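Quality-control log, excerpt.
Job 1 of 2 completed; input and output follow.
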Amino acid sequence: MLSLIDTQFAHPLKVGTLAKAAGMSERTLTRHFTQHLGESVGEYIARVRIGHACRMLADTAMPISVIAGRSGFPNLANFNRQFKVTKQMTPADYRRQFSGKKNDASPSLTERSPSLDSKRTASKRRRPAHK
């Protein structure tokens, strides 16, 4: 059931459809979710969708409205509201805070490695002066 939600989160998901796919009643599915995960089916789906949106906000420059749609939120206002409730910040604030963090540690391709600079200066120091 969780793998179905994890792969289909961007599409509309209804408890009745999920229960039918699992071969159980809506009530049984809801009870199992609450019992085993500590959250409702809707809360789990929202958490998966927000998690996907967070990755996209941090890793892409896509507009927030596109990210909302690709994360399963057809309504941007609803996405913004649910995101803020979950993360205590707006999607734009999240992007500003977390985008590019992974790449900050690695130098850009146009930067010269500091180790190369130190070797070159060290080799210049070792050369005997020509008289």
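Job 2 of 2 completed; input and output follow.
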Amino acid sequence: MAWKENLSQEEYDADIETATNTAKEGLFTQEQLDTEIGKTKDLFKEYISKEDFEKAKGEYETTIKDLEQYKPKDKSETEIELEKIKAENKIYKAKEILQNESLPSQLMDIDFEKLHSENEEDRKQVVESLKELFADEKFNNSFKPTGHKKNDGEMTKEQFENMSYKERMNLFKTNPNLFNTLNN
């Protein structure tokens, strides 16, 4: 609506009425507004009522209370300490089993779960640890002669009888005459 100067009262009243009707109608007609309000009321009916909401809330809270019995309880310091002692005892027993079977107790220090890792470096690390461990064990458990005595070719029958099978075989290879003499 454009600005007009020197309007009569009738023109002024007509312009006000037109402006009022336009404002009332706005962007939608009354019929369009009624349709949209009806749709909104229909959508609102799909929402849960306050009574139903309170009922569902009560059931939910009851379910939570029932499930809390299965929630793990916090452990006391004594229980935590007892678990640590049990874990240490398991490690001790496992090391004892390894030693009883003549296996190196250092096997306990290797993280075997890394063998199943997707990371190739982890797998290689475990294999290298095993190689080093068993190489050391081979060396430590290998035959190491003791009691090195000068053998002037003299050996008593008693010394011969106290020799191990390996020592006798070694004597047979190195000095077959002496072996035959003492073996008879």
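Post-run check on job 2. The chain has three domains: 9-70, 77-141, 154-184.
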